[in-house]
Design brief:
elongated, membrane, about 170 residues, alpha+beta, Immunoglobulin-like, single chain
């Protein structure tokens, strides 16, 4: 809480994008409407200045500055081009232990999403649908690689220190 969160949209920035926040048992709230014109971001509707957009992965991501408790929840992007409309995958914004977790509830990079959740809090994995052996394996391999890098750095530092004293 208090940090900046960036939620990705899996709809191309060629579409006019509308970001919505879904609150259970309520009508979804429109956070902002945005489009890209000649490389410039054009806001059509933006009632809260803490909500803005930035270009990320060829889409218009939602950027929430100074995240508050009320910001936690489920977000969707919708795209419109001509008569064509589409709804992007949702993203859930969690606040846990003083840091933010953004979980893509769609299939946009689910491996990275699950690994980040696993590394941040193994307890969340039991609540995360679709966590497979491949995800766990990738997380363990990543941790192993990190351990190897740390070991090499520590060994190098100790060897350098020993050579300087002799």
């Amino acid at each position: 809480l208090g940090d900046t969160a960036i939620l990705l949209c899996n709809i191309s920035y060629h579409y006019k994008i509308t970001w919505l926040k879904h609150n259970p048992e309520q009508t979804p709230a429109v956070l902002l409407c945005v489009s890209l014109n000649g490389g410039n971001i054009i806001y059509g509707h933006r009632p809260n200045l803490r909500f803005e957009t930035e270009i990320a992965n060829r889409s218009l991501a939602l950027k929430i500055k100074s995240v508050e408790d009320a910001d936690l929840g489920l977000y969707y992007c919708m795209g419109k081009i001509g008569e064509s409309m589409m709804v992007g995958g949702g993203s859930r914004l969690h606040g846990k232990w003083g840091f933010l977790l953004v979980k893509n509830t769609c299939n946009v990079n689910p491996c990275l999403s699950h690994i980040l959740l696993l590394l941040a809090s193994p307890a969340l994995c039991s609540c995360t649908p679709g966590l497979s052996f491949a995800h766990l394996h990738a997380a363990v391999v990543g941790l192993g690689l990190l351990g190897m890098i740390l070991t090499v750095c520590i060994t190098h530092h100790k060897t350098k220190k020993r050579n300087m004293t002799t």
